[in-house]
Write a structure and sequence with these properties.
Layout lengths: L1 E4 L2 E7 L6 E7 L4 E3 L18 E3 L9 H8 L3 E4 L13 E3 L4 E3 L2 E5 L8 E5 L5 E4 L4 E2 L3 E2 L10 H14 L7 E4 L9 H10 L1
Parallel strand pairs: 4-5, 5-6, 6-7, 11-14
Antiparallel strand pairs: 1-2, 2-3, 3-4, 8-9, 9-10, 10-11, 12-13
């Protein structure tokens, strides 16, 4: 568990289904956990930190959200296009693109790899964009492998590029990822370089 940018904690944990390390985040100001697996410190790390809500950047990132929601009595939120995934539980509430989910968190549209794929604008530490599955960072901003994108990888990549280009109008300094390393301080230029390649 580390404070990646002022007011935003980031940690990685091995995903039990895919067997790789994935990124999880906690926005301290609003008490928002994003795509959480339990950290090494366990569920107790959240004690006294005012956990108010859990936000999924897409429907595939439920991870340990039900355990945290049960323990701390907070809601789980996912974009409304992904709610069918939870028809048999757990209870997940929907949000729309453009909606402010907390005082320091806004849901922005990506809608590329899957309809509910969300970019979260975090208004802390100079501002950050958090990407679900559309962009990753393992040694540089890029796409997930083609076999994970779907039937039309090039079409999806074109849509990601177009939607990511629109994000340059947002206020942010950093990039955070559900898959990959944070880019602190150079996020805008890193995104711009990726789009120009």
């Amino acid at each position: 568990m580390r404070e990646a940018i002022d007011g935003v904690f980031q940690w990685t944990a091995k995903h039990p289904n895919i067997g790789i390390e994935v990124g999880c985040h906690f926005v301290a100001g609003s008490g928002t956990a994003i795509d959480p697996l339990l950290p090494e410190e366990g569920v107790e790390w959240f004690e006294g930190r005012g956990l108010e809500r859990i936000v999924l950047s897409n429907r595939h990132h439920l991870r340990d959200a039900p355990r945290l929601a049960e323990r701390y009595g907070c809601p789980i939120l996912c974009h409304e296009a992904g709610l069918h995934e939870f028809a048999d539980g757990p209870a997940v509430a929907g949000f729309a693109f453009g909606e402010r989910l907390a005082a320091d968190l806004v849901a922005l549209e990506m809608d590329a790899i899957c309809p509910e794929d969300t970019v979260l604008r975090i208004e802390a530490g100079g501002g950050a964009l958090l990407f679900a599955d559309s962009l990753i960072d393992y040694g540089g901003v890029g796409f997930v492998p083609d076999q994970l994108i779907g039937d039309d990888p090039e079409g999806v990549k074109a849509k990601i590029r177009a939607n990511a280009a629109a994000l340059l109008d947002e206020s942010f300094e950093h990039l955070l990822f559900a898959h990959g390393d944070p880019i602190v301080g150079d996020g805008r230029e890193a995104l711009r370089r990726f789009l120009e390649d």
